[in-house]
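Please go through the protein record below and explain what the tokens say about the fold. Record follows.
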Amino acid sequence: MSAERNKHFTRTLLSIAVPVTLQNLLFSSFTLIDTLMIGALGDLPLAAVGMAGKWTWFLTIVFFGFSSGASVFISQYFGAGDVPGIHRTYGLMMLGTQAASALFMTAALCCPEKILGLFSSDAQVITLGASYLRIMALSYPVQALAKGGGTLLESTQRVYIPFIGALCSVGVNVTLNAVLIFGLLGFPALGVKGAAIASVIAAAANALVIYSLGLSRKTLLRTKLSALVQFDLPFIRNFVRVSLPAALNETTWALGNLLYSSIYGHMGTAAYASITVVRSIEDLSSVAVMGLCSSCAVMIGGYIGRDDWNTAKLCAKRHLQMVILFCLTMGSLVYLTRVPLLSLFGVSQAVCEDAIASLIVYALCMTIHNIPAILVMGVFRSGGDTRFGLIVDCITLYLIGLPLTAYAGLSLHLSVPLTYLVMILSEDIVKCAVYLHHLRTGKWIKPIIHST
């Protein structure tokens, strides 16, 4: 790569990765702040909100499945300069995400206790979590709207607008959390219900900012409604062929993580509370990886849209190297600061001890845990190969990871840290070996817009 092209590559990467990383950091801090504030109320509310939040998290993963499949088309259309293709992809994506939000909202409003029963048999936890979930469900259609608009903007390199939306959303959430959870400024102390109300309002603020700025700045969000439904049967068939495996990949992965959460929940409320704390820090520490996944996907999609396969392969290798370097650095930082980090949470001594030991496991395994993420979400999907990740992830998750973790935690009654170690290593070692081989073959490059 020439010096000029290398400079352009670096500039493009930073212009996408930095805002998306900051956006992911904000949304991860959103979860962390909720966990910190709810943790101050005790282990029971923390576990209840953590379990109820899993249903919302599951929906966001379904959204991500739809949007990641759509972003393959949008980024390749953007590279080829095909604006009508971008708009019809956006329209089809919005139909899918809104349908999913309606389904999840209906279930959460009608039977929240049954949903919470998947994670715990503790009646107090279920009752408290259900009161949170009923309110939180009202935000699902708005979250779908924000995710669709954000995906179009990020895939067309207008990433600063979703970042501003995230910034405003987190500001609203922090302020209203403090006011409504603890009863400041004359408001009643609503506890977990206050946290749910704050999250609903914050989600609405995010969508409002994204569409207000997106429409006023004359981005590709500005279009006629008719342009969003200009898709015919061949386009729908091609879209489903590519996007459905990505959506199924994220959905089956999310379902697997719900089953993992169920394992910890049935190990005890304290076990679930400790994993909730660890997952909050885990999400926060991996935001840069998600930013690199986004920049990798947009850049590779653009290069393939322009038929520049060699640069696409180089882009994949550069992003993989950066993820490895970042994980080694961040893993060391998490290991060194694990005790001060856990001191921020108002949890019991037993929960804190399990969380500290689990953080050591995460810090040591961070690199092999995130290599599959950059390869599947950043490289393979943007190259048009959405099936390979689905197949490998399902095999490693449902035939290896879940059975071994359930056996370790529920049959052998291993400690939370040891069960967590089994969960990570049983999946990620196999996935790293298989995915790195697939990267070297170059078979993940499958242009899709020429067949639309």
About this structure: DSSP finds 16 helices and no strands in the chain. The CA atoms of residues 302 and 308 lie 9 Å apart. Residues 43-80 form the longest helix (38 residues). The two ends are 31 Å apart (CA to CA).
